[in-house]
Recover the amino acids of this structure.
DNA sequence: CACCGAATTCATCGTCTGTAGAATTCACCG
DNA sequence: CGGTGAATTCTACAGACGATGAATTCGGTG
């Protein structure tokens, strides 16, 4: 039985709670995750989570804050021939989803967005005002907003099918095959003739 | 206070419970919906739900059983010039999502699929073995399975963006504009050069 | 009209949930 | 080396949840 009171030494307990939260939210989504699961995975009492974050919602917001460099991402997608901009966007997307740190984050947002309004507006912002909009804006045209959401729909659909639902053979296809097949669709949405 | 025992007259209470279940599951998804909410919406005691269906899972399965004529749907998509098969698939999809009866059904499946494994495998089946596969199979080629899941990823992404997350301007775009913009992507996935 | 089975509700159990407050232990500053 | 504040746990509450079993009322059959 773990004794009460402050622990000896100094550890980044707050950080461990955040890491556990990302993992649990990523696995179960917001509503289905519980403060107790997070606490247990962090090796900590549930009350401590509230002491640090105040509420489950606030914990979610803190855990899902994106440590993603969007400016760099947009730059990397724009660097290179314009006729392969779609392919590069697919490649960057797959990389984000296959890096464990960002994966559980995106997983948490997508898994929660279908039922939780806060997470839904996060995803909405990501699709409508995020890096994808920056890409379509860079190529002029008055329909940049529509183009961005169209591309966003393909991106989120790809993520759902490949990583969340795991539908075969898409889930096991190689990165290059996905880039080759999905790239042209995004290409059209981003800079092609609609 | 509603008296105990059998009600006078004869009403299709079981059917009303199913309708209420479709509505509630469509709004909240499986895990977040409760037997009590369904019962309350059907004007019925929660125990009656268990009397008819046995468990929440069984209720979900019964409520989400698709009353959709897939054969007819495939036929309608295949009827007409082959170079517009993508556009016709988009149109059929939008029609399903905009008909209230089927909408809450699909909503329930998608909203639940991100966290519940049973719903996930329903959606997986829909994307990998359902009508979309029938379409890609009809056009020969050894990669029909991959083509179907690619098209499925765009379909589910469109549904997520337009109906679940409701991202603008996609959510408010006219049917014809969506058909015009998304059609060519599906066209490529279904019968085009990958 | 008696009876059986189906329909319906009530009361309840055990569990899990988010959250709050009080108590305890330690690190650090003077 | 004393004291203040932060870190951590314990205990607990009040509500919702899925599920069960018994009790009650009605429709339909003989």
């Amino acid at each position: 039985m773990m004794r009460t009171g402050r622990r000896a030494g100094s550890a980044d307990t707050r950080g461990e709670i955040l890491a556990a939260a990302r993992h649990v939210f990523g696995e179960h989504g917001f509503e289905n995750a519980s403060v107790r699961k997070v606490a247990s995975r962090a090796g900590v009492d549930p009350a401590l989570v509230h002491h640090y974050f105040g509420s489950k919602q606030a914990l979610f917001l803190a855990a899902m804050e994106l440590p993603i460099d969007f400016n760099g991402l947009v730059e990397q997608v724009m660097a290179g021939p314009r006729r392969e901009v779609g392919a590069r966007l697919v490649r960057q997307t797959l990389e984000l989803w296959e890096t464990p740190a960002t994966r559980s984050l995106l997983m948490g947002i997508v898994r929660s967005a279908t039922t939780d309004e806060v997470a839904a507006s996060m995803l909405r912002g990501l699709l409508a005002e995020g890096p994808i909009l920056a890409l379509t804006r860079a190529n002029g045209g008055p329909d940049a907003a529509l183009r961005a959401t169209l591309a966003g729909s393909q991106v989120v659909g790809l993520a759902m099918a490949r990583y969340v639902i795991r539908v075969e053979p898409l889930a096991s296809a190689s990165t290059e095959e996905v880039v080759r097949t999905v790239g042209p669709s995004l290409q059209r949405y981003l800079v092609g003739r609609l």
